[in-house]
Amino acid sequence: MHHRIIRSCSLGLLLTGVIACSEQEPPEPEISFEESLQQQLIQAQPGDVIQIPSGTHELTRGLSLNVNGVTIRGEGMDTSIISFANQAQGAEGLLVSADDFVIEDLAIEDTVGDALKINESTNVTIRNVRAEWTGGPLTTNGAYGIYPVQSSNILIDGAVAIGASDAGIYVGQSTQIVVRNSRAEYNVAGIEIENSTFADVHDNLTTNNTGGILVFDLPNLPVQGGRNTRVFNNRIINNNTSNFAPEGNIVGEVPAGTGMMVLANDSIEVFDNEFTDNDSANVMILSYFITERAFEDPDYDPFPESIYIHDNLFNAGGTNPDSAPLQALLEATGEDIPDIVWDGTMVPGRDVGDILCLTDNADASFVNLDADNGFATPNFDSTAHNCSLPRLSAISLNIGAE
Amino acid sequence: MLQNAGLFLILAVLVGCEQSPPVFHASESPLRLSAWNLFDLSADSLNPAPQTQVFRPANQLFSDYAQKLRTLWIPNGTQASLVNDEIDYPVGTVISKTFYYHTDESGALIMSPESIDRSIALDNNRLLETRLLVRRNEGWKAFPYVWNEDQTEAFLRVAGSSQSLSLKSDIGNLDFVYFVPNENQCAGCHVTNHPDGELHPLGAIASQLTANIDYPAGNGTSQIDDLIARGWLNYSPEQATPVSWRDESAALEDRALAYLDMNCGHCHNPEGTADTSNLILDGNHGQLFSMGLCKPPVAAGGGTGKLRYGIVPGQPQQSILLYRMQSIAPDEMMPELGRSLPHSEGIDLVNQWIAQLPGSCE
User: Fold this and answer.
1) SS3 track for chain B
2) Is the full-model pTM beyond 0.80?
3) Is the confidence metric ipTM above 0.90 for this complex?
């Protein structure tokens, strides 16, 4: 009896205690689609596939992923659309820092900054992804559409990039890169490979950009020595959109009407491409000095070397150059700017044949601008460049998707 | 038997309703902040548990003028050690930072100078969020908890949250969206070495804790001594106290560099996420070019503000660094995370510093 009293007393107290505590329990907050998507990206495990359903999903904050081995998959680049038209936070649409990453079959639209940035990642597959600013080429658009940087083993396949105020597809400070079967339109730079090594850029269409394909090596970056890029089987057509990059960016110095530009990069092979109607020049090979930008970097090589351009098809172009030296040249000669333009700068004593070789480009025209001497004596004779260079090896990526 | 079990339960419940010591959750993070027992919400104020140490780093990150209350807790029976003269916290350590604003009689948020509170009275403050940095077996983990409207509980929001705020100030009401970072965004600052991908504390580190809590004011003891007094650390690191950017008696350049280090250096360091730009702002490397002096931008996009160089000596208004500190556009502003408003005091300081730099970029 005595025992029972104590026991029921204790039960009573226990209940009181529980009630007192639970009365203070406030309700849980509700989670939006946007929050739930970001939560999935944070809580993902390697091997997970995160589905983006069809429809247009309006997000306000940039997304990010830091988990290795994750796939983000939509139902198609025209059906699964992540729109950042109302973005209020984040310098990117999607920021990824994760190895073994796959993104496919979706679109990222109208981000305030870069659409898809991938930083320090290994084994990256970007397939059938569209990055677009839907208002057309505007200075207020974000800088880069598809933007892997300091990464390796990168496949960009079947991508579409439209409207970037810097580069539509931009691979920077990276190695082992394939960009293929993609389309870049109405960007300042269509496709740009910068301070990178071992890239294949092939079977792409670049049209209506300011410059179609750029291969750059810039000073004062932690990763330098850009080299070994093959550019082949691309169609580089009518890249004549006025340069709309925000001032201060180096890409803002690319003349409208540039088909392809190699700036200070070494060991570049350009073949089997079609160049048509790029109104400044179809191809330009330039040293960093052309930018007239100062640099303090003793390790930097500002000259392009071992550039091999062969078996390309050149149609019209160079009819309306957007560059003072090229305009002066056109006025002086009364002729269109030649298909292949070299600024003529190199380390003194080097053999011209180590710098630039041109073979089997049908009847492509050529000029050496003599930039070292203030463009005084342009030389249209390509005889000195009638040479060949070792072919570069194909890139084979170590990723399952290849 | 039953009787004993009942009594035990009663005690457990009673203790749970009052205040138990803080709890280390070693794997799953509870949905409710209260489950960590870091605070007691009685008497209309948020009081850190007595087992925790309130601290304040020598320099503080700007966060839209929010006030911050920081606590550190190391479980009983464990101790931090010094590794390479840096504090290595034991598994179980929980660091918290609660963000709040002072309020007036009507409940409106008011901008006020930094106040160094040991607890937060709820009748003249509004709690926004409490961020936890928890040292688990696998490393530091970050968890953002967001306070509810009633100020009775904060809930884990893995993906962060946002709310529109209006802050009364001398120059009128500042309307802005206050963002609570998601867990990845926490990593955006706390992963200071990008290749290793590990989170690290930014405030509760040796150099920052050598200051007294009111630094640069007051002359109390080093906060390291507080840790030693609690038995959490055996001896002091041999680190100099950083110059406080608030310390008007210190040299202008030292103050500016201290400000840039605290607000930018977690990304802009040689191993940080922002090393892609080669703009290095983590302090005393002495390379002005790497700090942006006459340095062209790399991938700044609209963030150039149509300017050519990071810093143009003598010309703050021609300097991208200052432009990005002043901007509130998401793709231009720096830091990218952690603020929606420009920090006038920081901008003034960096402005003054650039204005007196000699030379030119031409």
Assistant:
1) CHHHHHHHHHHHHHHHHCCCCCCCCCCCCCCEHHHHCCEECCCCEEEECCCCEEECCCCCCCCCCCEEEEEEECCCCCCCEEECCEEECCCCCEEEEEEEEEECCCCCEECCCCCCCCCEECCCEEEEEEEEEEEECCEEEEEEEEECCCCCCEEECCCCEEEEEEEEECCEEEEEEEEECCHHHHHHHHCCCCCCCCCCCCCCCHHHHCCCCCCCCCCCCCHHHHHHHCCCCCCCCCCCCCCCCCCCCCCHHHHHHHHHHHHHCCCCCCCCHHHHHCCCCCCCCCCCCCCCECCCCCCCHHHHCCCCECECCCCHHHEHHHHHHHCCCCCCCCCCCCCCCCCHHHHHHHHHHHHCCCCCCC
2) yes
3) no
